Each structure stands twice: as structure tokens, then as C-alpha cells.
Amino acid sequence: xxxxxxxxxxxxxxxxxxxxxxxxxxxxxxxxxxxxxxxxxxxxxxxxxxxxxxxxxxxxxxxxxxxxxxxxxxxxxxxxxxxxxxxxxxxxxxxxxxxxxxxxxxxxxxxxxxxxxxxxxxxxxxxxxxxxxxxxxxxxxxxxxxxxxxxxxxxxxxxxxxxxxxxxxxxxxxxxxxxxxxxxxxxxxxxxxxxxxxxxxxxxxxxxxxxxxxxxxxxxxxxxxxxxxxxxxxxxxxxxxxxxxxxxxxxxxxxxxxxxxxxxxxxxxxxxxxxxxxxxxxxxxxxxxxxxxxxxxxxxxxxxxxxxxxxxxxxxxxxxxxxxxxxxxxxxxxxxxxxxxxxxxxxxxxxxxxxxxxxxxxxxxxxxxxxxxxxxxxxxxxxxxxxxxxxxxxxxxxxxxxxxxxxxxxxxxxxxxxxxxxxxxxxxxx
Length: 430
What we know:
The chain is an alpha/beta fold. It has seven helices and 19 strands.
């Protein structure tokens, strides 16, 4: 089942590697173009009402407390020095998505990338900020916004008193995380909301003030762009606006923000690959029918890329997790970011997505929270629910998957202790 870079086996043979090791938020009854319910939480104010102060939750302006404890890094073993350890966090953000990537410690500093920052409620920006502070991160290098849906952009804006990771208020006063090297987004927003309007007001000005590159991933621009994470690690933009890496032709029928989602691949030359795709979809549902997932899977497969860890697209919705895509990327671990706080109509993760994961033979399926699946009976796969943030510590061809610190207020329950020891060649074991 494991599809890997062929040259890893060659390296193992000669002893170089161990051989065994939408944001104008809908009511729960609303649905997006896919026929899947839109995400976004409570309805937000009209565009004209953009405002509010950052730095706190809606409870009296006091900041939300995530309860993140500084968790020790997984013990590194094998061929690469400890300074080559990269950490990835699938943040428990409730019904939303947020990923934090911290490069290896070089000269006492780790390069930091944040892709999406969850919803406004619970306070996604505060949850991500608390995690970064617990890890000793005081500045960011890269921010990637996969698309403008409320459960992805919410932690970057100050709408309704939410905490922005990037600015303190609607006047765009920067936080201490600036200056950044680069900010990436979709560019064109076909469904402008108060949140996306604030983003488009603040980001260009801050980028100019701090000499930060602001990149619109559209029209094929920036596909294949590599972001240096330090050491030998790199993050590559592999999809966006309906384009996939190594293919100049846009996937047919791409129309919606989900179909235009930015996808990012984090890699190490020893063979580790982590893929996060935002709300990228791959099979027809409602008005969405662009097979972007399948095109991306084929492109990565042609490169010899098999994915060790996959952030399952669109929170496990029925219009993602295309079976052809899953077979192409062949993940050893699939992580679903879903929330117990979702409206009942969402029914994420969908049973159809569980079935696709089972059919693709994915051996380990993890979830940040239980969610609200529509499976009438036991799901085709048995997911392990962390009730908290999941952490992946990567040292070249080896990686550890653990639950991180304490559960965030998105859930409030105790974190289930998880610990898996994994390698590119052998997969994972408890």
C-alpha cells in the first residue's frame, strides 16, 4: 500500500537510511455550491459593520485561554541530528482548520508557517497564538490562507471581537508576529464578506509596511513555489485556483472557493511528505464537480510522491476524499479536522469519506474531535479521536504522532493520550 520515492530504497540498500525504520456565515440550513453545508459559525455583521477590537473573546473582551502546555518534542532517533526535527500541528480548532509548521531549530530560532487559523468562534486566532507562544515562537515567516471561508480565515480577523493572529484591531495595527517573509491567498474573492474585506484592507498595507511579499495564487501563479522551512525541509504550493503542480492547464469546471483552495506539501529529502489541501474537493456534489483532487494526486504520483500524513480535505465532507486521489497519494496517516460544535446538518465526517479512506487502505485515521458523522452504523474505518491538537515531529525519514498538551476550548474535554512511532518505509505503530 505504501507508495514512496523509489530512491529511498536505494539509499537504504547502501546504508544511507535505515531500512526498517463562507464566511458571511450561514445558518445551519444554508448550503454552499457543493450541496454541502457552508461553514462559518454564527452570522457575522454586514461588510459595512467591519470593526471590533482584537485580543479577546466575546466574553467581556477577555482573551480565550487554550490551556496549551509546552509539550516535549518527540525523541529523535536515527540518521539526522536533532536540529533537523520539524514539528507540524493539526490544531484542534473546533469546526474549522488550522495548521502550524515549525522548522528545525537553527541558531535558536525555528521558521514558522501558519496555514489557516480556524473560525472566529471559538477564538481561532487566540488558540493558534497560544500554541505558538507555548512553543516559544515570537515571529512568523509564512502565512497561507487556503481560501476565504469563515472557518479558515476567522483567526486572522477581528470581526465580532475575535483575536487576529496578524493585527490587533480593524485599524490593522500589526501584532508582534510581523514582519513576515510572505503571505499567500487566493487573490480574487468571489463572495466578499466582512472577514475577507478586512483581510483585503489590512494585508496589502502591512505587507508594504514590512516589506512582506503578498502573493495571489491564481491563474497558475506561484504553483510550485517553494518555502524554505530551514534545514532540509521545504513547503511547496502544489495546487491553487484549479491548477496543480507540473500542469499548465487548469482543471475543468473550477468555479467555487473550495475548488480553488490552495494546497501545500511539506517535504524532506529522506522521503517524508505531509499534504494539507484546505477545502479542496474531488467529486461532484451540488454545483461543484471539478476533479481537482484527482488531478493533484496524479501530479504528485508522477513525481514519485507518496504522502505519509494527509490532512483530509474539507473536514471529511462528502465532496472531498476522492478515491482516485487517496489511492494516488497513499497516506499512512489521515487527519480529519472536525468539530463537536458543528451544526447537526453538517454531518462531518461523512460516511462516504470514511468509506473512501477504507477503500484506499489508509491504516490510521485520526480526528481532532468526534464530529457528527452521518454513518447509520459503525463507520467503515475506526477513527481514533484525540479530543485535542495532534502533533507530528519529523526527523527525516522518521516521525512521531502524538496528542499535544491539553485540549483547546474548542472541545474542553481531556486530551486522549496518543503516541505513534512511524517511518517512511514501515508506517506507524503504537
